[in-house]
Amino acid sequence: MLLASLAACDGGASSSSVVERTVSGDTTTVVVPLDAATGATRLDSLLILWRDPSLSRPQGLIQLGSRLVINDRTRLHLVGSDGSDPVAVGREGEGPGEFGAVSAIGAWGDTLAALDPRNRRFVLFNGNGKLEGTHPLVRIPDFINPRADGTPLVGSDDGVLVVQNEVFRTDRITRVALVWHPLGVGEPRVLRTWDHIEWVSAGQMIVPRVSNGPVGLVAVSVDGRVAWGDGQAYEVLIESVAEPSVLKLVRESTRVRVTPGARSTARTDSDMEEELASLLQAGMAEQEYAEFFPSFDRMLFGVDGRLWVRTLGADAPDVNPFFARREDEPAERRWESFDSVGEPAGGLLVPREFTPYVFDEASATGILETESGELVLAKAFWTAR
What we know:
Elements: E1 2-10, E2 20-24, E3 27-32, E4 41-42, E5 45-50, E6 60-64, E7 67-71, E8 76-80, E9 87-89, E10 104-108, E11 111-116, E12 121-126, E13 131-136, E14 143-146, E15 154-155, E16 159-166, E17 173-182, E18 189-202, E19 205-208, E20 217-220, E21 226-230, E22 235-239, E23 246-253, H1 260-263, H2 274-285, E24 295-301, E25 307-312, E26 332-338, E27 344-351, E28 354-359, E29 363-369, E30 375-381
Parallel strand pairs: 1-23, 3-23, 4-27
Antiparallel strand pairs: 1-22, 2-3, 5-30, 6-7, 7-8, 8-9, 10-11, 11-12, 12-13, 14-16, 15-16, 16-17, 17-18, 18-19, 20-21, 21-22, 24-25, 25-26, 26-27, 28-29, 29-30
């Protein structure tokens, strides 16, 4: 049942940084003033934990006891939390312990799970990387393979929660779903769906009606809470089967209008074929654009239960996300966090070269792109306020 709603609204800064709460029935509305959520801390240091030339396409990172696990698509890297004792697990293939393409990984107890949609199976390992078994990924009518967006798997020995997208429907509305896949006897069950994208015709193409950063972001916490976010509207719904109450969090913010023309311009130095670029340009010309910032484009739960969102501000690049390059991004990206009752829990400015996956109280572990283009495992530290 619905537990929380985070939403951004137009408006200037509040005269006070005191969070206001009102209760109506089983719904508690929390208003977070602008000045209570704008402070941000810069990193104190960034430490490289581990590097290996075989690390090529990291898609996610999780914590498994005292180890970190990197999803490198056709291989998993198990590394000590200090970068010690690295172990490589798996390789490309269809045999036991091999992967077609891992879309997500997760851990519970001493179990490491990898979801391999290409080979249509879940692959389970113990905490040392030893193969324990496989379970089939059962197809669900009208839904395609799980998304490879870095969202960790959450599960138990009984089953796994998986985020999947719906196939294109005749009403041109696609949905995203949270699906329970049993590890053993039983069929998968769709637990909840959300409207995701509305599609429109644009010449020879079908394109999303609105384009200003992603929508349909999903995060799952280790205690089973599920956050569904609309990045364009800065709105998040958090559900928990254990709580009947509803928490609605309204995030005040001063938003900046976006010029649609700038957002529909492709890069002139794109490597794609001219014909394809022209089709995409025609499609983008038919799209609408969100009128205000901030929005957000990533969302995840920290180890301590805080919800973290990576925002897009007025300094975001004026190019369509499809064409954006790393150097088009701002030099720093802002992350905002909220605790379990909707209180602002601190902001963080992160260099664009660092992609965090595991947040702790005053540190974050992720993938760092060095000046030479090498991808390495790194840990960031800051002083908690």
